[in-house]
Specification:
The structure holds two protein chains of two kinds. Chain A is α/β, with parallel strands linked by helices. Chain A has one domain: TIM Barrel (Alpha-Beta Barrel), CATH 3.20.20.20. In chain A, 50% of the residues lie in helices and 15% in strands. Chain A has an eight-stranded parallel barrel with strand order 1-2-3-4-5-6-7-8, surrounded by six helices. The relative contact order of chain A is 0.11. Chain B has nine helices and five strands. Chain B is globular and about 55 Å long. The N and C termini of chain B lie far apart (40 Å). The model of chain B has no long low-confidence stretch (mean pLDDT 89). The chains are: A alpha/beta, B alpha/beta. The interface between A and B is small, with 7 and 11 residues.
Chain lengths: 267, 228
């Protein structure tokens, strides 16, 4: 499982001030902690929702430089705004990365796919279009097909597409857990070389015991073919869920990851 | 890499349980480096004597793995990974060993007895025996007494290994031993038994030559037995 560490996200209040005040040490330790906990990618989202586009571009350049300096992991440059993505990608200095994200509308695809092609990096592709998140599997798969078509035109290799089937809270529509899982499986079947990812904590919004719901949902997604997950790698319950889920479906050869985690805890 | 370094590297990777380069090891940080398959191929390309590879790199390291398993440091998947390494190495070395005139330690017929479908332990024993230089004929699981006796007769095997994991099937071993006696094969064949419900006492009770706790124990016992 590819773990994309989600903690550097300016929508979180504490991270917002780290970014606004350029607290280099605090940002570096957010990156280090996630890398040590097992993150394969470090996500960077500096969208504070205040300030100008130019501010965000400067913030992204700064954050990329600080994180590159702190850890040797690839980055996940996270923004809905193409110029911010481009600023982040340009600041990599050889570090590998992925783009988070594009959706299936002409405008995002027209601006973001050329970045993915130009920088030769994978891109997270959301199963939604300009009208929002389709409620059905067919609707979401249609959005994915559109992305595949456009990606082919840009000669982006299939394995560089990470489809996110998207997760809506089950508390408002009990069918949504299944819609996500079925979309995941349908994407895997339709585009076997493409990969899949998701951020899944949304599924439990509005219900108690969220940790247990998230962990159970993650394991179902592992079974349905999830390749990457956007999560907090310091969340032990979720990391255990990843390892035990992959062990159970035979994705952890010789159970190395599963048994190693136990050895580390015993130490 | 010098010959000694290469042989050491192979041994290290058997202990780490890495069959191919992309495999993780027991310890962290090995991914991507050449593993047993690549290293054994390199050793052959370097014209290192295949017999030396078996003795220097495989046999000793499996003894090490056995110790780690006994102490509880290694778990079943760790041991299986190492056994898989020896199996992969023997698959590559097999044809070269025959050419090198390496002397076989003897023929060994292996089977899980009738009515019993368990074969994980038996398979490990098979790999270990191959690594130790025996010619192994593995008949599989749920093998009838008639088939076992016929195989021993046909191959002239000096050793027979019987496995059973169920209290309801372990008695089949006695049937096999009686059938060997009837065919006049018992004197020519040493019978070693193993499997969770069996024991030293049970082995004596049914007239087997030895009870083996696990694959490593089997190899140790065989060292002390006169050649068949």
């Amino acid at each position: 499982m590819i773990i994309i560490g989600e903690k550097i996200n300016a929508t979180r209040k504490s991270v917002r001030s780290i970014i606004q005040e350029r607290q280099e040490k605090a940002l570096a330790s957010l990156a280090k902690d996630q890398a040590e906990a097992g993150a394969s990618y470090i996500d960077i989202n500096v969208g504070t929702g205040r300030g100008s586009a130019a501010d965000e571009i400067e913030a992204m350049k700064w954050a990329v430089a600080v994180v590159c300096n702190a850890v040797d992991k690839p980055l996940c440059i996270d923004s809905a705004d193409p110029p911010v993505l481009e600023a982040g990608l340009s600041a990599l200095e050889g570090r590998s990365a992925m783009i988070n994200s594009t959706k299936a509308d002409e405008k995002s695809l027209g601006e973001i796919l050329p970045l993915a092609a130009g920088f030769g990096v994978p891109v997270v592709a959301l199963a939604m279009d300009d009208k929002g998140i389709p409620e059905t599997v067919d609707g979401r798969l249609k959005a994915c097909r559109m992305i595949v078509e456009k990606a082919r035109e840009k000669k982006i290799p299939m394995e560089n597409l990470f489809f996110d089937p998207l997760v809506l809270p089950i508390s408002t529509d009990a069918r949504q857990g299944r819609v996500t899982l079925d979309t995941l499986a349908a994407v895997k079947e339709a585009f076997p070389e493409a990969r899949t990812t998701m951020g899944l904590s949304n599924v439990s919004y509005g219900l108690p015991g969220r940790s247990a719901l998230n962990a159970a949902f993650l394991q179902m997604a592992v079974y349905a073919g999830l390749d990457a997950v956007i999560m907090d790698p310091l969340d032990e319950v979720m990391m255990d869920a990843v390892r035990s889920g992959e062990a159970l479906v035979g994705k952890d050869r010789h159970f190395r990851k599963y048994t190693r985690a136990f050895r580390k805890k015993a130490r | 890499m010098s010959k000694q370094e290469l042989l050491k590297k192979i041994a290290e990777n058997v202990i780490q349980g890495r069959v191919v380069a992309e495999d993780e090891g027991f310890d962290e940080g090995y991914e991507g480096q050449p593993a047993v398959t690549e290293l054994v191929e390199q050793a052959l390309a370097d014209k290192i004597d295949p017999k030396e590879i078996v003795l220097e790199s495989l046999t000793g390291s499996m003894e090490e793995v056995g110790k780690k398993f006994d102490s509880g440091e290694y778990l079943i998947p760790d041991m299986l990974a190492s056994a898989e390494c020896v199996g992969a190495a023997m698959d590559i070395l097999g044809p070269h060993l025959a050419g090198a005139g390496v002397e076989s330690k003897g023929k060994f017929v292996l089977a899980t007895v009738a009515g019993d479908l368990h074969d994980i332990g038996k398979n490990i024993v098979g790999i270990m025996l191959k690594g130790a230089g025996f010619e192994v004929q593995d008949l599989g699981n749920d093998v009838t007494t008639e088939r076992i006796v016929a195989a021993v007769k046909e191959s002239g095997a000096g050793y027979l290994g019987l496995s059973a994991l169920l209290t309801t099937t372990m008695r089949e071993m006695q049937t096999v031993i009686e059938a060997l006696e009837k065919e006049g094969l018992r004197e020519k064949t040493r019978v070693l038994i193993g499997g969770a419900p069996t024991s030293e006492d049970f082995a004596k009770d049914i007239g087997a030559d030895a009870y083996c706790r696990d694959a490593f124990h089997a190899i140790d016992l065989l060292k002390e037995m006169p050649r068949q």
